[in-house]
Write a sequence for this structure.
């Protein structure tokens, strides 16, 4: 397997492919952001307060950018995609809000998690509001095919979140079971975001599939890297505490690779921490040491690289367009994420 | 105002209009139930477990029955409405699940609330799953107009739920503010359910409006009666604890009417219980006594009756059909609810 270029120099380039995408699509993205802000308007003050807190907090807007990029590459009417790009971001944001509730996370995007400030009640209900708003936005686009893609994605995400509950705190969770969760809870929305452009322009099935594959593969890699960052990141750069997954007993790639080769004593460590959630001081560092011993983080990175290579291959099927190269570079860039 | 007939004899008739509706639409309803069960199938066992627990637990299925009745009256192709009727029930069920989480309710439909058995996590996420499934079902119907109606309703419901958060624990909440919440969180889905039939058959605007009004008005009355039952019902018949709203400091019609005429001492009682949620033994009985003193429950009933009268008037616009009478009777029947 060829080593992706971004792997060679670990420092993110001063202008990343994501920045490039944002710059090229700036005018369109401004329209999307306007739609997002408009949809958060409500005579119930709590809704804009909470939504703005979360959405204005930034985030990379990677999903709506993918929707816009796909639309630009396939020549879809851009204004038609604005509500769809906004819808995709809303689905993502609603998921974050509900994730924070259920995970009892303490931080998100460098700020206190919304549920700690506004309460669980508000997080669940405003999440529902954003979710339903995303459907209102979708309906605007007048395409039942796109509606089917996005509503399918929403169902798959929800199913993935439930699946994750059943793999958490169970060290028997296999790599395929983990990847199944990742595909559902994260990659499905990336795939749907990428598909919208070719579907709107009635591109042939091969093209739709290529964009879908591209989105699916970078989505999987994105989540694997995310799961690695929860063990390795600088929490200041990451914008949230590290070690959250460990505390919650989530079975992610690094843990799975460490458990895979664990001896009896190590297994009992994972049983106590991940399954019984009995965590003492120094346990997080001990977990990191076990991961080091079994090359668990290296293996996770190789796994992510495999998907990125597949994403680049899918991207090679996309028609020639200046943004095709950017999508290809974006795939590599995902491996260099530090937050 | 003419007194509705069902008011005269307070005992529910041996065969209620709801039973009649179920009997007439039995064959169609069976198809709807099949769709509901099929949608709950999943390779994630927790989903059918939790959904079945809730959906199989019964419930009156009043919303899907209204959808089917509307379709039958306006001559819509019945099979086309099955996924829509199922979608409406799913939206309702998802709302219940999220309500139970946020309200920390102890019982629902005579059983322990789902969140107490399966955990808050599962309730939020399975709620999301049902909600997204409802959109998949809607997309099947191929009608963007119906999709718009149902996605609008979903957004209004979510907004109403958030609004309710902001009126809770605030004894200054006015009757119009309460009715605004009721319209959003409950009546909007009744209205949408009723509208589907005439919209699918492209009935004229007056007809669509009549069905919408009918649904909206019975929905408002339904919720007012619900809020009364939380103070007056026999908890065994109701299938959940009474006094939940009081404990949570919800501002519903009976409290609003009692607060309206409260003297200084009474106001401080409501401030302590509803606003500060400091509730001692005997407080619930004291609240009932204050409601009695100020005719708060009587006033609530009269308010519900007003909406039922309006619903009957709206129903009179509906074309002649055997089920038109049933809808009219159903309006009265809502006033006699004991659970």
């Amino acid at each position: 397997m060829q080593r992706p270029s971004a792997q060679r120099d670990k420092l993110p380039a001063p202008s990343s492919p994501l920045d490039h995408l944002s710059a090229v699509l700036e005018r369109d993205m401004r329209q999307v952001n306007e739609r997002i802000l408009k949809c958060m308007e409500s005579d119930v003050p709590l809704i804009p307060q909470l939504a703005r807190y979360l959405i204005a907090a930034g985030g990379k807007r990677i999903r709506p950018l993918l929707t816009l990029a796909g639309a630009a590459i396939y020549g879809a009417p851009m204004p038609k995609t604005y509500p769809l790009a906004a819808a995709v971001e809303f689905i993502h944001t609603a998921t974050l809000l509900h994730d924070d509730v259920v995970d009892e996370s303490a931080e998100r995007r460098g700020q206190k998690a919304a549920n700690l400030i506004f309460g669980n009640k508000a997080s669940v209900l405003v999440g529902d509001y954003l979710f339903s708003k995303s459907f209102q936005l979708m309906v605007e686009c007048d395409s039942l095919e796109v509606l089917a893609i996005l509503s399918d994605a929403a169902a798959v995400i929800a199913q993935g979140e439930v699946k994750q509950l059943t793999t958490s705190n169970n060290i028997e969770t296999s790599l395929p079971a983990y990847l199944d969760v990742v595909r559902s809870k994260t990659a499905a929305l990336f795939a749907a975001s990428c598909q919208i452009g070719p579907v709107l322009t009635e591109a042939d099935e091969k093209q739709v599939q290529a964009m879908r594959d591209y989105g699916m593969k970078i989505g999987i890699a994105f989540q694997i890297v995310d799961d690695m960052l929860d063990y390795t990141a600088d929490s200041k750069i990451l914008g949230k505490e590290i070690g959250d997954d460990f505390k919650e007993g989530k079975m992610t790639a690094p843990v799975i690779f460490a458990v895979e080769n664990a001896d009896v004593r190590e297994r009992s460590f994972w049983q106590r921490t991940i399954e019984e959630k009995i965590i003492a001081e120094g346990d997080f560092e001990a977990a990191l040491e076990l991961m080091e011993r079994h090359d668990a983080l290296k293996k996770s990175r190789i796994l992510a690289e495999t998907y990125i290579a597949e994403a680049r291959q899918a991207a090679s099927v996309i028609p020639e367009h200046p943004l095709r190269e950017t999508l290809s570079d974006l795939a590599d860039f995902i491996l260099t994420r530090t937050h």
In short: Confidence is low (pLDDT under 50) at residues 1-13, 103-109 of chain A. The radius of gyration of chain A is 20 Å. Residues 92 and 125 of chain A are 15 Å apart (CA to CA).
